[in-house]
Design goal:
Blueprint lengths: L14 H11 L7 E4 L7 H4 L9 E6 L6 H6 L8 H12 L7 E4 L5 H12 L1
Parallel strand pairs: 1-2, 2-3
Helix pairs in contact: 4-5
Length: 123
């Protein structure tokens, strides 16, 4: 799933509700969920609220930029963000997302971002 800067899906649905809906409609046949194409700061406040659904998230592929999807779409130059801050954002999510074992990058990331995430995660 991807989320907007408010932590909700583009449809306005809450992330936890989306996971619950898919699990209900598929008898929980999805092996795990991932959050992608959103900066950790966009959904950190959502996962900090807790819930059993957090255990279903096993992967993160975040954007480098803190900009919204709309802002990124309108940008004339790539916002590469801050690799070290991105790594710290992943680590902040780990407190709530204990089953995450798939890490990667999405829009605006490159090997420096992935390296920063890996280094931060390994600490």
């Amino acid at each position: 799933f991807t989320v907007e800067t408010d932590g909700k899906l583009p449809s306005g649905q809450a992330l936890g509700d989306a996971i619950a809906q898919v699990d209900f409609e598929t008898d929980a046949s999805v092996a795990y969920y991932m959050v992608n194409c959103a900066h950790p700061s966009h959904f950190e406040h959502v996962v900090e609220q807790g819930g059993a659904w957090l255990g279903r998230i096993a992967g993160l592929r975040a954007n480098a930029s803190t900009l919204s999807h709309a802002q990124l779409d309108e940008a004339e130059e790539l916002d590469a963000g801050d690799p070290v801050a991105l790594g710290a954002g992943y680590v902040a999510l780990r407190k709530s997302l204990r089953n995450v074992n798939v890490l990667g990058g999405c829009c605006g990331t490159d090997k420096s971002h992935v390296a920063a995430v890996a280094e931060a995660w390994a600490r």
